[in-house]
Amino acid sequence: MLKVLLEAQLPQGIEVAFHYLKGALPPRTPSKKKLKQPLPETQFLTVYEADLLILALEVLVYKAENLTTVYISKADSTGCHSKGVSLSTLALCFLKQLLAQQIGKVRLVLFARSQPQYLFPGSSENEGKHLLGDRELVHWWVGILERLRGISKDATACIIVPGSDDQEVERTYLAGYKAGWRVGFTDSPQALAKDVLLRFPDDPKARFLDQLSLDKAIDTTSLAQFWELMAYRQEMSSGRSVAFLQLDTVSEYPADTNVPSWDFLDLSDKKLAMLRDELGAQTFTSREETLLASERWLRLVPASTDGDAKPVCVFGRATLKTVAKADGKTINASKTSEMHKRPASDTQPNILVPRKRQRPKP
After folding, report:
1. What is the distance, to the nearest Å, from the Cα of residue 286 to the centroid of all Cα atoms in its chain?
2. Which pLDDT does position 53 carry in this prediction?
3. Is residue 203 annotated as a catalytic residue, yes or no?
4. DSSP calls for 254-278
5. Residues pairing with 361 in the sheet
């Protein structure tokens, strides 16, 4: 399905390839002790253009009885993709088919915070990589979630920016979007935070929940109190603009229907973790270094999947008109007027969106 989605969205003449890896959790030993939350299933996507790694996304899927939570753990680019490749479209197609894999109610969550690099070490030094500042990155993800809302008529998207009032958030991030967005999450404000919030790796919410446990306040802190206090946490009040985003929807594939092929490779969670560590040991400071790292990665994946796991090739078929319509209101298509008004000191290069390369002077 991912291949089909990408072919329909990428422009004619664009060719990419991908490895879609899915880690299988080890069988659980029967235990009387109840887990506080489900164990996550890891899914990892790497995308290539001309044998160069250009994009990677890591997500964790938590499957509970009545709700599946999809957490976008990390997303990063190398800065080596061509002008015709939209990274937002690649990410959108991956997330769209990932949500469609689930059964019933699905919740997509992420924490938007700009960093020089997440998955490709040294890539911030690559002159082709353009990093966005905090606000621009939030805009980028809001644009993707807005497009994902089309999966279901009942989909609701939410945003919380700690330390900002609702009107400011709406004015800064949601101007121009249709109904279906709200500031604040859909869970009851009176519910205990510990009963509602999952704890993700490298997650500010999880760190705050741990602190509340140490302070013996975890059993009395409501969700409303949690978010109010969250604004005073050091990583939220250091002058940076960060956001927690959420999309609630329902899978379009009921349990009694045949789902399409998902194009992923199954391997053990341990092997996927080893592959992930190997990627983190490479260097992506330049196009040349990225090519060497990509060659190593392309050799490692088949060796870890017990077979000749070649990347899935995708040939774009979309016309320019279709691509322009699909891009809609995203950070790749155009920046908002408010973003243009910001001083240069408020913007820095972004992990996901490319910048125009300068022609060498004669």
Report:
1. 24
2. 98
3. yes
4. -TTS-------EEEEHHHHHHHHHH
5. none
SS3 250: strand
Residue among 122, 138, 97 nearest 260 (CA): 97
Residues 6+ apart with CB under 8 A from 282: 120, 121, 289, 292, 293, 296, 297
Say if CB 129 and CB 115 are below 8 A apart: no
- What is the structure's pLDDT at 310? 84
Beta bridge partners of 77: 55
Say what the pTM is.
0.84
- What's the gap between Cα 198 and its chain centre? 17
Residue 233: CB atoms within 10 A of its CB come to 16
Q: What is the largest CA-CA distance in the chain?
A: 73
CA distances from 321 to 27, 66, 90, 236, 328 (A): 48, 40, 18, 41, 11
For residue 244 the two structure tokens come to 């927690």
Per annotation, catalytic residue among 51, 76, 166, 203: 203
Question: How high is the pLDDT of residue 81?
Answer: 95
Residue 124 has what DSSP assignment? Answer: G
Residue 90's CB is within 10 A of a number of other CB atoms, namely: 28
User: Along the chain (362 residues), what's the average pLDDT of each consecutive run of 10 residues?
Assistant: 92 94 68 70 95 97 93 96 94 93 92 93 92 91 92 86 92 87 92 94 93 95 94 80 93 58 81 92 96 94 74 87 48 31 32 40 42
* Tokens matching residue 87: 């990274």
Alpha helices in the chain (DSSP H): 2-9, 87-101, 134-148, 166-173, 193-196, 204-214, 223-230, 269-280, 287-304, 320-327, 337-341
* Residue 151 pLDDT: 72
